[in-house]
Each structure stands twice: as C-alpha cells, then as structure tokens.
Amino acid sequence: MALPIFATTLRSRLPFYYGWVVLACVCCAGFARQGPAVATLSIFVAPLSHEFGWSRTAISGAASLGGLLAAVAAPWIGPLLDRRGARLVLCAAVLVNGVVLAALSLTSSLTMFYLLFCIIRLNWAAPFELGLYGAISNWFVARRTFAASIAALSQAVGLAAMPLVAQGAILHQGWRAGWLALGAVTLTVGLVPAWLLLVRRPEDLGLVPDGPTPPVTRSARRRIAAAEPAFSRRQALRTPAFWLLLLYTMLVYPVQAGVSLHQAPFLIERGIDATIAATIVSAFSGASALASLVCATLPRAIPVRYPLAAAGALLATGPLIMLQVHGPATGYAGAAVFGFGLGGMMTLVPIAWADYFGRAHFGAIRGIALPAQVLAQAAGPLISGALRDLTGDYRLSLMVFAVVAALSIVTALLARQPAIGPDAVQLA
Known about the structure:
The protein contains 18 helices and no strands. By secondary structure, it is an all-alpha fold. It has one domain (16-417): Growth Hormone, Chain: A, CATH 1.20.1250.
C-alpha cells in the first residue's frame, strides 16, 4: 500500500520520532472503536427491551453472533495486516462501523438489529483488535508497554465516553438518536487521522522501532532486529506459551463481555436510577483507563505473566463486590475493581503476544489465536443473559464469572516466555 502523502511530508519536518504520530492515529481509532462495545450496548438494553419486548438473551445474542463471525474472519485478516499494514484495516473498520451505527437508528425488527449489529461487532472484535496492536507492535519494541498502555487508555476513554454520548442522546431524543450520535462520533474521530497519516512500519520511512528519528543504516537495522524474536505462525503453535496465553484469554474474555454488557440492567434491577447506572458504567471505564496508565509504568524487566495474574485476580474480585450492590456506593466500588482489572488485562494481553513471538508475523499469529478469544468473548453475554432469564437475576452469572476469572490466575503464572531459538530470530 502506497505511503500517505501527508506522512512523507510530515516525516521530514518532525523534530521527534514518527511513531508518536502513528500512536496518535491508533488512539483516535481506538476511541472510535467503542461505539459497539458491550458497555455501550448495555445502555440500549432497557430501551430496546421496553419498545420491542426483546429478552436480555436475544439482545446479548447479537454481540455473541458478531463475535462468531469475527472468529471466522480473523485468520484471513491477520496475514493481510502483515502484508498491507494497519492503515487499510483500520480505515475500513472505522468507515463501516460509523455508517452501520447510524443505520441502527432505523431498527424495526430483531432480524434487522442482528444483521447490523453483527457487522459492527465483527469489526470491533477482529479488524480493530488486530489493526490497533499490529501498528503498535510494528513501531515499538522497547517502548511497547508504554505505547500499548496509551492506546489502551484511549480505548478506555472511548469506553467511558460512548455510553455517556448514547445516554445523553437517548434522554433528549430517544434510543434512535443514540445510535446516530455514536455513528457521528465514530466517523469524526477515527477515520481522517488514520487515512492521512498511518504508515505500515518504521522501515517504510527509513526508521527503526522506537526511533531514532534520523535514517539508519542496514547494519544498524539488522542489529536492532536481531534482539527481537520473530516466531513464524508454525513455530509459535509449537510452544506451550502460545496455548497458555490462549487459555488465559479464553478464561478472562467471557468475564469481560458477560459482566460489561449487563452492568446497566443489573444496576437498574438493584434499584439504581438509569442515569446513575450510566455514570457507574463510565466509572468502570475510568478505572480501566487508570489501569492502562499504571501498566505504562511497569518496568520491562517484570515478566508479563505476573501483572496478567494480578489482572485476573481483580476480575475475580469485581463480580463478588457487585453481588453486594444495593446502592450507588457499592456499585461504584465493584465497577472500579472490575474496571481496573479489565484495563490491565486488555492492555497486557496484546503486549504478551508481541513480546513472546515478535512483530514479523504478529498479524498471522494473532489471527490464529483471536478466533478462540472472540468465541470466548461471544459466550460471555449469552451466559450472563441466559442465566439471568433462567433465574430472574444476575447473581448466578456473577458467581460463575468470579470462578472463571480465578482460574485465569494460575494459567497466567504458568505462561512463561518461550526460549528464542536460532530459527525464531529475525534476520533483517
């Protein structure tokens, strides 16, 4: 894919590393990603149920089916990302999501809702996930934790803002206006920076990951690349670390999606006002953002499996606190603990994949792993909705999610970084 003309012009005039421009584009796209996030959809659960009489399970099923479609698409998108770069993947994802979010305002049936929401949920789970962290992994190695934390922070800010955008529009003009507002914000924030400025990898501009800004020689590039693993997809599949990281994500992502989607209706059922419930959902997102900032300060010498285990412990504790919710105070406390664990987990998982297996085949490796992740993520809302419809409240689903998150702690501690053999080192 040709370099954006604005990128080549800006590159020659910048007094700092162009990777920070790439990170800014990634942050804009990450913010825009959260229009169809399950926390945002939770704001629409009550009004859609009231107008159409749809069950919680039926609404949850749209998020889950979109995840199933993402699982099918991810193995094809990963190699495309490695060949063409994040610009194509992210621009297409933002454009489609913005248009389809606006189209959801025309929803007149459950079939139409499923058709439209599955498209944007597919984008959320596969193209965005691969594109955002593919760009970061290409442009940063030593500073990868910091860059990924900033990107995760932007997504957490989007996750805090999008429910409030939707709720504000719903209060003034109804749920249809909520979808229109989300579509407008997605297109405004996410599309233009990525289209004009995003570049596939630093080598395309004569740079190396992390800098320096001046062009470097081929021998210097070779020395820098040799320090980084470059597992192929086949090599990665042969390591225990691949399967343990995969198991970790399959344990934590049902918890993430199942609790996040049903936060607002759970709080409303506990007697909390809908507007206050929306602020609690945003507080959960704010705690997630704070966790991203904390991750940015973690020394690179600390093995990533330890903070991953800590995130799993917080994800297990959050639902237990939520079981005690009878007013806003405990609602905010549960949201804060769960959100902090969620922010840490979602920041660190992509870092672990890139650190363990390198950036050369990041898209292909994540493209194989991502289907299991999104299938697990798709199961969360269905489990939560089905258990709620079966028992009449969310107590059982919260207890189930607490146990599942606890199992992730052990899995994370076992996931040691694989040894770098001579066939798994990049020779630039």
